[in-house]
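Q: Can someone sanity-check these two? First one:
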Amino acid sequence: MPDSPAPPAASRLWRPNTVLITRAARGFPHGRAIAERAAALGADVVELAGDRLANPKHDDPRAAYRAAKGTLAVVVAPPSKRRLQPIPPSADWRFDLAEGCHAHCQYCYLAGSLGGPPITRVYANVDEILAGLPAHLGTGQVTSASPARAHEGTTFEGSCYADPLGIEHVTGSLAEAVRFFGRWDAPVQLRFTSKFGNAAPLIGLPHGRRVRVRMSVNAPALIRYEGGTSPLQARLDALGALARVGYRIGLTVAPIQAFPDWPVGYDDLFARTAAVLADIPDLDLTVELITHRFTPASKTVLRDWYPGSDLDLDEQARSRKLTKFGSTKFVYPAETMRQLRTSLTGLVERHLPMARLLYWT
């Protein structure tokens, strides 16, 4: 593995205002360590008498939202939460180290996926979660069964319902997962994506080149919709630092939007990325392109959370489609999608010719 350079300057780290730790979570050393780290950051740690989380009570919905976003709950993942699920087109399987996010992205897809107050839940029983992964070795329908991606091995997505790097300085859970995959002598890969640039906890870990870190990025003009996250340049610098110590890396460009002058904005994004990744030896880079879509339910939640947002959620300007579950989603019309796809795939080829484009959706 290459010598470890100094990590880039860390972005401002999140400090939860309140940490709730359940009785069951206190029975795990990892759960107690999370609470101790949070207390050292100045968080108010509350030891619950039982295992049930009570919803924050506020008459003002905005106050309730702020309280929930400032709360971290340390809980135990039950067997139902440890049951792996397929996660196409990203990976063979999804597993969760946490659920929820403290950031304030005005197009957050979790708004339509997770119910209840937006508290971030982290799991104390990480060892149990990781111990369940080997049973799925060699199975799956995304990389395990794909001639184009079979060389990635069995892939496990660790960031479907959370941003594990954004809370790693409190949890330490992502480092445990990286070490686990580093020890796992098999054709496997841990994948996760993040909007945070704090690479320091991952520098120097024995990852065995079985970990792909992807940064969730967008055109610079759209980063203003991602409150509480790292600046775009900090994310790209972190990606470069991790690539230099042997991690496989990737870009998750999402959610792609047809804003005014979008071709210029996305050209800027890929040009910046190319500058950061220039001359990195043995670079393994992937790109995933994901367009903006929303559901009626997510639109309602997002409008409640961010009533002053000017994010484009105009249903009349979109095409209505049905998901595989029969629910409604709104996507860009076919011609807009064609223009976006043609332009962005061309920009990837021009600025990042060494990258593999995994999918467009």
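And here is the second, same format, sequence then tokens:
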Amino acid sequence: MELLLLGLLAALIWKLYQWRRSPHDAPLRSVTLCLLCAALSYPVAMPGGASGVDTVAGHGAAKLIQNVLLLIAMYFLMCFYLYSAADEEAGRRRARTEAVVVGVVVVAITVAAVSVPHEVFAGSFSTADMTIPQIAFFYGGAGLYLMYVLGLACRWTRRYARMSRRPHSTGLWMAAVGLGAMAVACAIRAVIVAVRWAGVDVPEALMAAVAFLLVASILLFAAGITYSGARARIASMRLWLQHRRDHRRLAPLWELLAEAYPDNVLRPASPAALDRWRARGVHRRYHRRIVECRDGLVDISPYLLGDADSSTVLNVDSTELAARLRRAAARIEEGVPAPRRPVPLAMALGSDRKSDVKQLIAVSDALRQAA
């Protein structure tokens, strides 16, 4: 139960973050409210939460609230697919119709729950007396509605998964399998209700297996709907770490060039606190350092050429370039004027930006090793 709640909370936090960024996204709002209702239902189902609610609202209230929250969660899950349909107006009309359906189900199971004595309504699904019609209707009616919504959601998710590409399709297939497994679990529970209503005992092992299937399928569904977003966050974190590492590796080269040409060091757009804060971001500092290093190499290039070098291009390896940079920095510090005009530097590792950064890092590493 705790693992399930943690999984739901992780998915809920992620969707709340996305909803905050896109408050007018109806499908996103629906799936967020679905996860919110599902997450709220589990503390009510726990022993401590259930006893607290029953103490305040009356015996059996916790179980009723839990099932009502699950029904509302399934309704919002259906709304997610309806609002995602191509015909938005038809989806909204269907959502209003489904709201009436879930309202009828909620009222029906509530009437069934309050029409029996509190002591009869006590206990869990495995211990409830299903020979009482109201109890059987309470569990059977809620289970059939859950099966109906989960079955439709599984079919719609499979359709979207076939139309999508990775990594989105992977998450959708995970969600579809989770939804299908939940629908199967609800169907089995409905059969169990019918069997027990007829007075036939059901093995405890079977009911435990169904409960485990339900928990596992919910976790798989939560993992599926957060898969693509989590994967994007992981990729973003890897890029952040790489830029942070490369920024540090460029420090020796940048320090040498910034000392020689301090005017090349870029400043924040304005002294405003927001601009200063943005300028401290890892990606901004990384790209700014690359620009400053390239500008500094162009400015210092006249000091790097030897008598035997071409007057139009400088093409040397990283170790030799690092040695020339140290000598050039010393000459600039002594006040020696530039002997010629700046020249471009040949890219020994390639002409694309990635190769450019690799060469800058190689030169900076050579400077660090020499120091």
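A (reply): Looked at the second one. Residues 204-249 form the longest helix (46 residues). The radius of gyration is 32 Å.
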